[in-house]
Structures are given as structure tokens and as C-alpha cells.
């Protein structure tokens, strides 16, 4: 598995854009569709919180799990999975010395792991069944760290806790895991005219298959190709949604089930817990998960030269 620092990825993508293309602090508050007329093409008017108005030929909502664009389209609201995750990044200026491999721990209702993302950085996570303490602690990095080391993860190996204690508090978060109902992804209206969504705005998923960011990049390639090959923007967006629906639905469903199985038996005792853990350790991890993991090896195709939309 190859890990990428999110900031490094965003910087690399932004560097490919012409100067001035990225606009910060621009919260979207409303969307209006302008029908095509004999003298103008279909357009969308965006109104921002600061009063600015933007007229766009095409609107692609990449505004995350709480997407304003997805809500405008009528997609179903994201659901709570009943699980939350704490994510952190630990920095070792002199190097950490760990192999480039993921390490995962399952115990007492939690799932935790480590993954080096460079020679000096280690990404770590802890997934827990959602608890009331989150409301108070989630806004305070110091409280989050204490919750991991003294409560939720106190029984985890010293290697894991040492990494957690070395966390850069600026890169620490605790939030519920949300997902869109797979049926909503499969049948929901993800495009209307010249408006669509991509990434978490389209198909938010829990992180067990590590496909959230990857599937967003797939969306970008398929969307660009569909627009370049279609006669009109609206036809291109419709083709993009038709192409992505099936895979996105599968990813959302597989990720949710995988997380439920991996974590479900860790805090169940007696015979029921034993059966769940038996299935997880001897059947799921050995036979089912490797086949689900094949989902990661997906070729979404290449970008092609633009043939249309010279306007």
C-alpha cells in the first residue's frame, strides 16, 4: 500500500492550475439554475456567503460529505455508521525507522492502525464505536490525545502508543464516520443539467477499504473524459454519473460491511462474540477480504484529447 500526505497531494494538484484559479474562504450558500435560451447556453449562478455571485457554465460539487451541491441535487443525506475515527499524523524529523507497511490492531470495540507516509511521517488512526465523550473532546486536540492514550487505546501495544504520543496536535481530529446509503448512490439524482458532484459529495464512504480519496481521483478522470467526448456539457455529466454509479455503490457497501465485520466482534462477549471473531479471523480475513481488496486494483482508463466544447 502506498500512502500519500493529503497536503502534498493538494499542493501538487493546485500547482497544475493557472495562478488565481483557487479562491479561499468562499462558502457556498445557494445555487440557481438558469435555463438555456436562444441567445445563451444553460448556466448556474452561485451565491457565496461574502455576497459574491459567480455564473458558471458547469458546476462540479466537490464540497465534501455535507455538500451543498448534493443537497441541491436532492441526494439523500449522509448516515451515521455508529463508528467514529480519530486520525493523527506523527512527525519524526530524524526518521522513524519503520517499514512501509500497515499495522492494524483489533481489540475491545476498537480498530487501530499505523501507516508510514514518508521517512519522517506516520499516519495513525483509531476507530471506535461512537461515544458521548466525543462531543466535548473533539474540539480539543489535547483531550483527544488523552482519550486515546488513557482510555480507548490504553491497552494497545507500546509501539502504537509511542507513535500517538508523538502526534503533531495540528493534525489531529475526531469525527463520526458517515456514508451515503448505497441505494441512494445507485438511484439518486447525481446530475441535473450542468451540475453534478464528485468525491465525498457524491459517494461518502467509511474508510475501511482506503478508497475515499482514490475514488475521487477516479471521478476526476472519468468526468474529464466524459466531458471531452460529449456533444454538450449536460450530456457529458450524465455519462459520467452513469459510468460511476455502479462502482461507487459497490465501494460504499463493501467499505461499510468490511468495517462492521472487522470491528463488530471486538466488544461482544460469550458465545456470540466468539462466533463473530471466528468468522472474522478464519473466514473473512482469509477468504473474503482478499477478494474485496481486489476492488482497489481498478483501471478507470486514460484521459483523452478534448474533441468538443470549443466554446
Description:
With 311 residues, the protein is α+β, with helices and mostly antiparallel strands. It has a domain at 79-178: 2-Layer Sandwich (D-Amino Acid Oxidase, Chain A, domain 2). It is built from nine helices and eleven strands. It has helices spanning 6-15, 68-73, 134-137, 141-152, 158-165, 182-187, 212-229, 233-264, 270-293; strands at 28-34, 43-48, 53-56, 59-61, 79-91, 103-107, 110-116, 121-129, 167-179, 191-192, 195-197. Strands 6-7-8-5-9 form a five-stranded antiparallel β-sheet. Strands 1-2-3 form a three-stranded antiparallel β-sheet. A three-stranded mixed β-sheet has the order 4-11-10. Helix 7 packs antiparallel against helix 8 and helix 8 packs antiparallel against helix 9. The model has no long low-confidence stretch (mean pLDDT 89). GO terms for molecular function: FAD binding; monooxygenase activity. It comes from Aegilops tauschii subsp. strangulata. This is FAD-binding domain-containing protein. InterPro entries: FAD-bd (IPR002938), FAD/NAD-bd_sf (IPR036188), MOase (IPR044560).
Amino acid at each position: 500500500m502506498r500512502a500519500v500526505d493529503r497536503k502534498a497531494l493538494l499542493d501538487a494538484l493546485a500547482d497544475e492550475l493557472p495562478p488565481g484559479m483557487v479562491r479561499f474562504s468562499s462558502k457556498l450558500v445557494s445555487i440557481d439554475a438558469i435555463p438555456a435560451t436562444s441567445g445563451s447556453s444553460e448556466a448556474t449562478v452561485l451565491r457565496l456567503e461574502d455576497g459574491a455571485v459567480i455564473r458558471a457554465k458547469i458546476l462540479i460539487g466537490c464540497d465534501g460529505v455535507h455538500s451543498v451541491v448534493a443537497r441541491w441535487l436532492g441526494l439523500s443525506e449522509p448516515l451515521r455508521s455508529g463508528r467514529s475515527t480519530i486520525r493523527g499524523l506523527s512527525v519524526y524529523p530524524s526518521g522513524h525507522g519503520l517499514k512501509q507497511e500497515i499495522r492494524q490492531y483489533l481489540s475491545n470495540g476498537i480498530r487501530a492502525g499505523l501507516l508510514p507516509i514518508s521517512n519522517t511521517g506516520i499516519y495513525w488512526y483509531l476507530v471506535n464505536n461512537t461515544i458521548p465523550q466525543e462531543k466535548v473532546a473533539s474540539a480539543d486536540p489535547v483531550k483527544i490525545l488523552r482519550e486515546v492514550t488513557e482510555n480507548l487505546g490504553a491497552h494497545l501495544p507500546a509501539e502504537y502508543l509511542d507513535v500517538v504520543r508523538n502526534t503533531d496536535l495540528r493534525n489531529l481530529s475526531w469525527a463520526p464516520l458517515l456514508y451515503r446509503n448505497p441505494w441512494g448512490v445507485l438511484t439518486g439524482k447525481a446530475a441535473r443539467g450542468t451540475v453534478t458532484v464528485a468525491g465525498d459529495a457524491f459517494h461518502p464512504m467509511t474508510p475501511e477499504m482506503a478508497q475515499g480519496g482514490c475514488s475521487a481521483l477516479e471521478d476526476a478522470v472519468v468526468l474529464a473524459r466524459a466531458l471531452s467526448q460529449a456533444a454538450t456539457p449536460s450530456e457529458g455529466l450524465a455519462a459520467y454519473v452513469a459510468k460511476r454509479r455502479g462502482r461507487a455503490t459497490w465501494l460504499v457497501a463493501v467499505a461499510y460491511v468490511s468495517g462492521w465485520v472487522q470491528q463488530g466482534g471486538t466488544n461482544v462477549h460469550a458465545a456470540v462474540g466468539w462466533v463473530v471473531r471466528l468468522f472474522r479471523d478464519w473466514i473473512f480475513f482469509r477468504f473474503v477480504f482478499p477478494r474485496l481488496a481486489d476492488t482497489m486494483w481498478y483501471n478507470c482508463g486514460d484521459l483523452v484529447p478534448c474533441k468538443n466544447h470549443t466554446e
